[in-house]
Automatic annotation (TrEMBL):
It comes from Medicago truncatula (Barrel medic). The keyword Metal-binding does not apply. The keyword Membrane does not apply. This is Putative leucine-rich repeat domain, L domain-containing protein. The lineage of its organism: Eukaryota, Viridiplantae, Streptophyta, Embryophyta, Tracheophyta. InterPro entries: LRR_dom_sf (IPR032675), RPS4B/Roq1-like_LRR (IPR058546). Keywords: Plant defense. Residues 4-142 form the Disease resistance protein RPS4B/Roq1-like leucine-rich repeats domain.
Amino acid sequence: MKNITRIRLFDTSIEKLPVSFQKLTGLLNLIIIGNGMLRLPSSIFRMPALSKINFEDCLLPKKNDKLSSMVFTSRAVDIEYIELIKCNLSDKFLPILVMWSANVKTLDLSGNNFTILPECMKDCRFLWFLKLDDCKCLREIRGIPPNVKHLSAIRCKSLTSSCKHMLLNQDMHEAGQTMFCLPGFARIPEWFEHQNMGHTISFWFRNKLPSTALFFSTKSVATSRTNNFDIDIPTLIINDNINGFPVLMIDFGLMSTHHIYLCDMKLGFTQIHSMEKIILENEWIHAEVTCEHPKVEPLTEIGIHFFKQKNNMDDIQFTNPYEKIKLNDNDDDGDDVFYEVDDVLDDDNDGVFYDVDDEDDHHSQ
């Protein structure tokens, strides 16, 4: 039995595991999809080699079980991946589980009944992926793992506005690499310096694609029978998709309506490296982010934030740089003067106007 490293039990009708199960000392990965009747023995959580557990629709050990208390109050184990989906995880049991699994990196607690994510979550310093989908009773998040990058709280309809505001704090996202999905509606945070009404937003850049955070919300689905839809939005269109520039799409997977999304745009792009190879030095490039899709009603707001420490802000503009012509001013201070292309020029104030294309001829006379 030492050679068995993986066990999968799907839709099992058994109500308990045999005592001999704990003899599987070489077990690395355990997957159990139950029927709501199987109560997991405490001995599972003491298996020495176990690094990944996937439990769904199972019952956790009773909190007043002496063996359970001994297991979960002992030192943290080295399990890196934990899924406890629809396992009736309560507010009383959750802090014990968190202390026991302090070394976890991926944690999925979807479909449980707890109302508070405890403050001790801050001790999970290795946790980067936290999934809380369908925890419909969840109201408060008192502790946020310091290194969490992906947080999903889809359909957590009881989550308070103050919690959502905390999760949208700039300090949590300024380092980049985050992707958060939260329920309901929230105004675009003020630290998103470029905001627009509607479903599109655009900017100009040169030399390299900027490191950017994107904020948008989904509304109701117009043509779908379900509240979830698997589509590629938002989409980044470069130079109107001409001259060989690719169209890049952020993959959020299964998206939900009436939710807000905040993400580092580069996380979802699969063609960034191929695009950067064809960007010419100092050439201004137009980028448009759009969240338009036949199944989604137009968004009301969309916002962009450029990470200051990762970008040269001189290489980013919100207006078309080619709509301006730079002429050398004759003033002693050497300042540059900008004229709009569509304007006509009267640089000597003599009442005679010249087209932009005729400017060189005018000065040569």
